[in-house]
Amino acid sequence: MFKKLLLSSLIASSATFALQAQADVSATVTLVSDYVYNGVSNTDGDPTLQGSVDWFNDAGFYAGVWASGLDEGFYSSAEVEIDYYAGYAGSINDDFGYDVGYAFYTYPGANDAGAELNYGELYGSVTYKESTTAKVQLSDNYSGEIGNSVVVSLSHTISLPEDFSLTLDAAHTKLLDDKAAAYYGSDAGDDSYTNWGVSVAKSVAGFDLSLGYTDNNIEDNYWGDITDARVVLSISRTFE
Q: Distance between alpha carbon 6 and the CA centroid of its chain, in Å?
């Protein structure tokens, strides 16, 4: 399985929660041209709706649920993904913030008798000056019962004129158990891959707009079209 290599980001950085500290609950609805996570399409190039509800308080604790449509052919007949998460976000000083928590990814309706798709994950991130974030995600049984996994990612956002922003991101996913030796390609050593992307974002009349490009180094055609490079457009609205 391929999953969340978080959620565009499912789990917000500590900087994001600082901006929302005035509210106790928020809800976000998003329309995406393609549900892509860590360089891989989860809807096989089709658009879908996504949504989340988040609770947080001024002390830094938060919890939420996030959902998205899926390509049922790739996800063993599951048509939706529902993820649950909880954690704590705070600041070290004026420059550095952090975020630690746990997420559980679920695929209701999946025919997963051969291998359980649901899995849990610990995560932690550090953000520098609300623009550069390094994150680590750890699972002891990655989706499809593949075993231990680690994802390391880095993103950097640059402010542009007219309130535009440019974000550069990259992530490396590594499966740690021998049974995943050829998970991302035909060779015995294909147990990891790297993805990268760039996106431009702007808020207009209460809507957050983003246009991005993403790619990865997974072996050509090994997973089919879902690993092709692609452009993704998203439009979201948050209600507080």
A: 2
